[in-house]
Design a protein that fits this description.
Oligomer: single chain
Shape: elongated
Radius of gyration: 30 Å
Largest sheet: 5 strands, mixed
Number of domains: 2
Order of helices and strands: HHHHHHHHHEEEHEHEHHH
CATH class of the largest domain: Alpha Beta
Length: about 350
């Protein structure tokens, strides 16, 4: 019963500290989206911008406590903001304080109605609303939001209440727009978005997926054993695949992941097969890492084999003298070929 009332009791025991980094990154990403959006929604409702931020913050905290969807974000919505703004405009008569009081009362009334709807299981009523009606409503809300935000983008006062009145005022004020300022503002936004995108891309590239493989039962194919625990492992053999090209800036992360796995079974490990089929390019640092790994493993009497390397990768490995150590690196040698060779040598 208490788990239904307080859902965190269902998952808090299984929460691992390793999830904290991902959750923190997700929270920062949501905040980067939610803060400007919540401010826009508050403006759409005719309220000070901080009301939108409070709505996201308080709504999010309470949903985290009482909600059941762990990946769901709760906060103001464009449709609700639009309804509140257009409805209160006819009641408040321009009185800012009265506007805020009516909006607060509306929020309390909706909270009570939502609680009653939950207790009476009214969620099925939504199924009777045609999707075309919802799409039309959302489209209207989107157009209204655009019209309310355009004056801020163009640096003009704007004004008006209805759609056509706002559009007419906006068109009339466009000649007053400072085009240089507008272009500069747009370019700043584009540059900032590009920088953020590049940083996110570099973060993803710097943390490639290092997978350890097992044989898919009844086949000659090999897949990630962490995703498919039923894949077959071969005693004394470790299969590695990096889902990225081997560039200098990711080598240290790959090294850490590979050696962490090696140390788990170092006492029984005899051979490592590295599947390079998903590494389209290997730079000098990557080739030297493979060479160093070979020498370190050889000192521990563990052999290293390379499978399915692309032509450019084979050329780089040869230029670093790795083929002289490992033997001929053939484009025809598959992971399964090396596994069978290993198994044949065990008998």
């Amino acid at each position: 019963m208490w788990k239904n009332i307080f859902p965190p009791l269902q998952w808090i025991k299984g929460y691992s500290p390793k999830h904290l980094q991902s959750d923190a990154f997700a929270g920062i990403t949501l905040a980067a989206y939610a803060i400007p959006v919540s401010m826009a929604y508050a403006s759409l409702a005719g309220l000070p911008v901080q009301y939108g931020i409070y709505g996201y913050l308080i709504g999010g905290i309470f949903y985290a406590i009482f909600g059941t969807g762990r990946q769901l974000a709760i906060g103001p919505a464009s449709a609700i903001s639009l309804l509140i703004g257009t409805t209160i405009a006819t009641i408040a008569n321009g009185d800012v304080q009265r506007w805020e009081e009516i909006a607060s009362l509306t929020a309390l009334v909706m909270a009570v109605m939502s609680l009653l709807a939950y207790l009476l299981h009214f969620n099925s009523v939504v199924n009777f609303i045609r999707e075309s009606a919802l799409i039309g409503f959302k489209a209207g809300a989107a157009i209204t939001i655009v019209l309310t935000q355009f004056p801020k983008l163009f640096g003009i006062p704007g004004g008006g209440n209805g759609f056509f009145e706002r559009a007419g005022i906006l068109i009339g004020q466009l000649p007053e727009t400072n085009l240089k300022v507008l272009v500069f503002g747009i370019l700043k936004g584009v540059v900032l978005a590009a920088i953020v995108s590049i940083l996110l891309l570099l973060r993803a590239l710097a943390n490639p997926s290092v997978t350890f493989l097992g044989r898919i039962p009844g086949t000659k194919r090999y897949g990630d054993i962490s995703r498919h625990p039923d894949n077959e492992t071969i005693p004394g053999l470790l299969l590695i695949r990096v889902e990225a090209s081997l560039f200098y800036f990711i080598i240290e992360n790959i090294r850490s992941s590979v050696w962490a796995e090696i140390q788990k079974s170092e006492s029984t490990l005899k051979c490592i097969i590295w599947d390079l089929s998903t590494s389209a390019y290997v730079d000098i640092a990557g080739a030297r890492f493979i060479k160093k790994l070979y020498l370190e493993l050889k000192a521990k009497e563990i052999s290293l084999k390379i499978a399915e390397a692309h032509s450019r990768v084979r050329d780089m490995l040869r230029s670093e003298g790795i083929e002289e150590l490992l033997g001929h690196i053939s484009r025809r040698t598959s992971v399964d070929d090396l596994v069978k060779e290993y198994e044949g040598n065990q008998y």
